[in-house]
Amino acid sequence: MRNFIFSFLALILLPAYMSGQVIKGKVLDQTGLGIPGAFVVAGNVSADTDIDGNFSISAKEGDILKISLVGFDAVEVPATLTPMTITLKESADTALKEVVVIGYGTAKKRDLTGSIVKVQAKEIADKPNPNPIVSVQGKVAGLSIVNSGKPGEDPDVRIRGTVSRYQTKPLYVVDGIFADDIKFMNASDIESMEVLKDASSLAIFGVRGANGVIIVTSKRAKEGKTTVNFNSSIGFKTLVDTPSITNGAQFKTLYDEQRSNQGLAPYSHYDKFNANTDWIEEISNDNALVITNNLSFSNGTDKNKFYFGLGHIEDDGLIDNEKYKKFTFNVNNETQITESIKIGVSMNGYNSSLPQLRNFESSLRATPIVSSRNADGMFNQLPLEIGAAQIGNPLAEVQGKRFTQLNEESKYIINAFTEIKLIEGLKFRGSFQSETSYSKGRGYTPVFDVYVSETDETTPYGGNMLTNVNQFKNDFNKKQQDYNFTYNKEFGNHDFTLLAGYTRLEETFEGVNGTVTQYINGDQIPYDKRWWYLNVYPYGDPTTRFANSDQWDRATVSYLTRLLYNYDGKYILNASFRRDGSSELSDSNRWQNFWSIGAAWDITKEGFMEDQKFFDLLKIKGSYGVLGNQYSSIHYPAYPAYTTGSSAVFGESIVPAYVLAYRNNPDLQWETVTSYEAGIEMKLFENRMSLEAAYFNKTTEDLLTFVDLGSEKFYTNAGEIENRGFEVAVSWNDDINDNFSYSISGNATTLDNEVKSVYEPGFQVFEGPSILTAGAPIGSFYGYVVEGLYQSYADILNSPPSSLGDYAPGDFKYKDVNGDGKITTDDREIIGNPTPDVSYGFSLSGTYKQITLSFDFQGVYGNEIYRDWGNGSTFAQFNYRTERLDRWTGAGTSNWEPRLNDGSGYNKLPSTYMIEDGSYLRLRNIQLAYDFDKDFLDKTFLQSLRVYLNAQNPFTWANNSGFTPEAGGTPISFGKDTGGYPLPAITSFGLNLTF
After folding, report:
1. Which of 184, 463, 796, 901 is the most exposed place for a label (fewest CB within 10 A)?
2. Kind and range of the H or E run holding 212
3. Distance of CA 288 to the CA centre of its chain
4. 123-140 burial, b if ≥16 CB within 10 A, otherwise e?
5. β-sheet bridge partners, residue 548
6. Residue closest to 346 by CA, chosen among 337, 363, 358, 334
């Protein structure tokens, strides 16, 4: 320990004496990140930087060091005995020479006309997020990510708006394999993510391209290097932004006033219920942690590259007894058999133990005047008149049923490929991918008593008197084959790459589930997981055993081709075509074509731009194409199943008749999205500033719509949705001197979503307060406009009469929207839009010597949230929001908070009273990191060592009343705040070391 302290102090205070004739330093890029593999030369001596950009070279003070790397401008600096920090700037051509991953291959960025954003692994690897996509929030223009605080739950991800009523999430392509999510991946095993947004980059994916594509590339070994990396972090979760609800005394005041308004006497059992319980605190996990551990090994030669990674995550929920465990492994190996033949195989594995998730809704609803347990430690039932039958004791739900649902899921993906160079410029790549995944679980419904204070008796919790077991298992298998030829040729000023291929994708699903209940007069099924099976003998009653199954399979066959062409680096053309055939559609409409064309002009390559110094890159681009969307509410919509219809009597038997579930429509086809964009890319001020901007338009046509006319039901292609907007991303990177560099970056997206048409005029689809209707954004909130409160009966008489229910002074005064002189259901209108007008993110980063400090912000503006909690109920007595303390109690006392009367549903109709501002700005992440200097590392067995302190979601500026302004959901029902689950603040400590 003393040697460690001495070495560290010597590093800080006495570098000149330690360094001698050895010059040491670090090479950074313009964002402050270390650059591996940079070439450092001093006279006849040379060295390479390590994985974190550190170098050590024999030289004298004052000698000239030359540092270079492909894609960066070479620099020459005099050597110093103090540790050096050298920043390399991108070459003017780097953006065009950079290789990015696209569909079915890679390409130089110079050859592309589309909108593709690359996210490096360094931006996501050290964040405490089990799902890697969560860390990308706010990093990419046009990419909307709405996070959930629930451990193991997927975020709501949308690229450039909502294009369909059935599916929003993009297609993920992991090392060439189609996937529905990437929660099975370990962030430390990811090399990069590419977000594809426009028609030019998406048409090659055919029926899966409409929602956008995120390509994920796993890490591979680097040639000539053997490395072992270990990184670990521990994070502490904190519940923040708790909603304000009434305490015990406040509840009594409001409840008794409500009873008075309903003509009832004051509540008579306050002698038994006089507590002041904070139900949120009662069920919260004050010691919630998120722990990550990752280990990887890689070795690369000119003939073989091998990588192996292991990952383990434990993520506690904010509610007691919630724990998500995730284990991953990633192994890949590539072998160059001959100069012409390369083979490779990779495997990703994932297993997770899923938490028994709950939410905070009951904690917001339960009255605070009852304590969680009685004097004997038994759970208390809520008061009989105050929600006992409808709201369970929140703590009883969490503790009394703890660990009674045991779910897990696994996924294993294998990918094998062969790549053959046939002739100069022509190669063939054949690959086979297989995915096997399953989810399974067993659950138990216990029986236990709660104490009823009013009667001094006990009663079964929730009225449940019989134990029960449930069990399920789902199996999903996928086989994918890709066979592609790629030909690349340069001649004169012409450069083109031609792709032609065939793919086949087969998917199968099988699921079974069932339940069984104990004998009515028998013993309870034990509270022991060894007994939680459907054949639980001798406790389960066979007559109660119920089982169900679900299964489907489908296949898609595709032919595809793509041309990437540029002339003299100035004029660029991209064209793609894909023909998809699906087994889910009828023979007459099975095949559909998708295509795109894009063009770009690099103006800086023109002769008239040679003498200007302002632009390092000026490129204008545009694309147009047709994409596909194969998602629907059911599989095989063109082939209706049979359902039970009328019955017939044959002799003494009643025989059910079966009819089609809906009318068959052989003309069904997949939805199509016509997409176009126009944009510009710029680099200025010697590449210190970069800017990309684009206008986009995506119009979905032939919406797959289920029509229920009562007497007739059927699927048809009808309707249109348009998404349009602007995107801009800008960054500035600069180094002040050898010791200090900084970067600033930001992005913003405007989005205007509109349902242009539906099945026919007047056709509407409702999902709670959300609506799908022509002329409004998808998922808009639909209800009444509150103009104020009736202040007196005279006010009522002077206002349009309402047919919506009984009302009195102190109730809502709804607006007569259509002006017909009365308040009816026809006065409902669009009262809110859950889609933000603007989504944005920005980052600040600075590096001084070995210390780096960074800030990430993210936010949205212009959207509304529907508050779906704290509005009271006609079926049960809930706790109150503290805003209800300002309720109407007489003429002039309030014009917004209505009188207390939960016995009436008049004030609970969807209205602008439930609408809240959804705009927010969140400090998404702060990180302070220290990279140990080469001087110290030379005395150890380490190549690099980085320690960091990270704070995620520490501050949010918002106007909503719930836990969080983020609220995802379905394509036509999102932005609803149910009060269910908050987004935690996480403070984590971590280290990353390489041997």
Report:
1. 463
2. none
3. 21
4. bbbbbbbbbbbbbbbbbb
5. 513
6. 334
The CB density around residue 548, as the number of other CB atoms within 10 Å, is 10
Residue with tokens 């990396």: 229
CA–CA distances in Å: residue 338 to residues 221, 225, 335, 418, 432: 19, 21, 9, 12, 21
Of all helices (H) and strands (E), which one includes residue 196? strand 190-196
User: How would residue 43 be classed by pLDDT, with cut points 50, 70 and 90?
Assistant: confident
Distance CA 303, CA 223 (A): 9
Whole-angstrom distance, CA of residue 626 vs CA of residue 670: 12
Phi, psi of 5 (to 5 degrees): -60, -45
- Write the CA distances from 409 to 63, 134, 152, 325, 330, integer angstroms: 59, 20, 11, 11, 17
The tokens 């006392």 sit on which residue?
893
**Ranges 109-123, 357-371, 578-592, 732-746: which has the least confidence:** 109-123
pTM attached to this predicted model? 0.88
Interatomic CA distance for residues 249 and 99, integer angstroms: 65
851: Cβ–Cβ under 8 A, 6 or more apart, which residues? 928, 929, 930
Q: Are 905 and 849 in contact (CB under 8 A)?
A: no
How many angstroms separate the Cα of 828 from the Cα of each of 191, 196, 206, 398, 819?
A: 51, 39, 40, 40, 12
Cβ 471 vs Cβ 513: under 8 Å: yes
3-class DSSP state for residue 417? strand
Instruction: Tell me the Ramachandran region of residue 620: left when phi exceeds 0, alpha when psi lies from -120 to 50, beta otherwise.
Output: beta
User: What number of CA atoms fall less than 13 Å from residue 777's CA on the CB side?
Assistant: 23
Structure token digits, residue 35: 């650059």
CA dihedral sign of residues 878, 879, 882, 885:
positive
Pairing of strands 740-750, 494-517: unpaired
Question: What contacts 24+ positions apart, CB below 8 Å, involve 37-41?
Answer: 37/69, 37/222, 38/67, 38/68, 38/69, 38/72, 38/88, 39/67, 39/68, 39/69, 40/65, 40/66, 40/67, 41/65, 41/66, 41/67, 41/68
Angle at CA of residue 711, ends 709 and 717, nearest 5°: 40
Q: What are phi and psi of 730, to 5 degrees?
A: -140, 145
pLDDT above 70: residue 95: no
Q: Place 13 in a pLDDT band, splitting at 50, 70 and 90.
A: very low
* Region of 263 on the Ramachandran plot (φ > 0 left; ψ -120 to 50 alpha; else beta): left
| Runs of H (alpha helix) within 102-204 | 199-202
Whether 599 shows a pLDDT value over 80: the answer reads yes
What span, in angstroms and rounded, lies between the C-alpha atoms of 292 and 315?
9
**Phi/psi of residue 779, each to 5°?**
75, 15
Task: Judge whether 408 and 354 are in contact, CB under 8 Å.
Answer: yes
Q: Which segments of 518-641 are extended strands (E)?
A: 546-567, 571-582, 591-602, 615-629
Contacts of residue 844, Cβ cutoff 8 Å, sequence gap at least 6: 742, 743, 744, 854, 855
587's CB contacts (< 8 A; 6+ apart) are: none
Give the burial class of 373: count Cβ atoms within 10 A of its Cβ; 0-12 exposed, 13-18 middle, 19 or more buried.
middle
Bridge-based pairing state of the strands 213-218 and 171-174: parallel
Q: What are phi and psi of 13, to 5 degrees?
A: -100, -25
Q: Please, which residues bridge with residue 487 across strands? A: 426, 498
Mean pLDDT computed over 336-342: 93
- The percent of the chain in helix, strand and coil, each rounded to the nearest 5, is 10, 50, 40
According to DSSP, the residues that pair with 477 across neighbouring strands are 436, 508
Q: Which two tokens stand for residue 769?
A: 């307060």
R_g of the chain, CA atoms, integer Å = 32
What confidence tier does 12 reach under pLDDT thresholds 50, 70, 90? very low
664-713 residue pLDDT tens: 999 999 999 999 999 999 999 888 999 999 999 999 999 999 998 888 89
- Close Cβ partners of 842 (under 8 Å, ≥ 6 residues apart): 138, 744, 745, 746, 747, 856, 857
Using CA atoms, how far apart are residues 929 and 90, in angstroms rounded to an integer? 24
- Calpha distance 441→456 (Å, rounded): 38
